[in-house]
Amino acid sequence: MNAVPPGEDLALNASGKSSPDAVLIAEDDPIFRRILQSWLQKWNYRVTVVENGVDAWRVLQQEDCPQMAILDWIMPGLDGIELCHRIRSHQHGPYKYVLLLTAKGAKEDVVAGFEAGADDYLTKPFDVNELRARVRAGKRILELRAALGKAHTELQFEAAHDHLTGLWNRGAIMVYCRGKPSARFESVSTSG
Amino acid sequence: MKPIHLSDIEETLSRVSSAPPDPVPNPCGELLWGKAEALERLGGDEDLLRDLCQIFLEESPKLLQKLREAIAAADPEAIMRAAHSIKGELGYLGAAKATQAAQELEDMGHEKNLSRATEVFTLLDQEFTGLRLTLKEFAGAVS
Predict the structure, then answer these.
(1) Nearest CA in chain B to A29
(2) pTM metric for this prediction
(3) Most A-contacting residue of B48, B59, B63 (CB-CB within 10 A), to test interface
(4) Tell me, which fold does domain B31-140 have in CATH?
(5) What is the pLDDT of residues B103-130, one digit of tens each?
(6) Do A119 and A24 share a domain, yes or no?
(7) What is the pLDDT of residues B13-39, one digit of tens each?
(8) By C-alpha distance, which of B63, B80, B74, B79 is closest to B125?
(9) What is the C-alpha separation between A134 and A155, in angstroms, rounded?
């Protein structure tokens, strides 16, 4: 892969500061909060823990927020479903992987959860192996997405730059001129 | 529950068909909660289970009080929420009978039919008293 010339940081954007190892846990129940926190930390995830949906949303709006969110379905303030809706409709930065926690036997919850934009779900009472498997699957998807995003930016860079000099190529300059209001004005006035 | 394992079917069938009832291998505390079951979920981490019991002992009286107040106020929404939280915790600890009672209360709240709420709450409260004693014993024991 070509080295990115100094001053050009396009290819770096995809990786960002927030990594697939960071997880937000939003759970109002102290027992489940303890279980999730304890295990995820043991598996070397960087964990942010909140006790309600409003705090979860505050964290998720931050620039370097965790890319994975484990959200309880029923919480005071904002519930997991409403959070899902918000995450998907205010998508900024890297993709957020959402794992919803639901109660046993609530099939309609699962369907509504997926419709709201959840990626996966976990039914309480879950066991440690299931949690690990689901979180790993989420991490894998985030890593694939990051790799894809990086490849995409690198391709974009290569398509817009001259191989030898690393300067903008003709296509990129044309796109730039077309996008500039003053350049557009000039082209209109000369053709008139 | 699915998936069904052949060994489970065999075990159930043998339990049903064999004439004498199983001898009770567990101390009576095991009837109130499923320690083995909870431990298995936690990958055998007894320290974590002990922590969870501590949290339960501290937090569950508040939840139970919330539920009691919700029933006194005949507030189906509040009953549903409080019962739901209690159910989740009891379910994790494998307290089958108490979980069942909490589930019933949650359903009553959901259906806004509170005619049996006090009755079921009394049952839940009784289970709680026994459960708390057993958990205290376990959580207090030094590993």
Answers:
(1) B85
(2) 0.75
(3) B48
(4) Four Helix Bundle (Hemerythrin (Met), subunit A) (1.20.120)
(5) 999 999 999 999 999 999 999 999 999 9
(6) yes
(7) 666 555 444 444 444 565 789 999 999
(8) B63
(9) 32
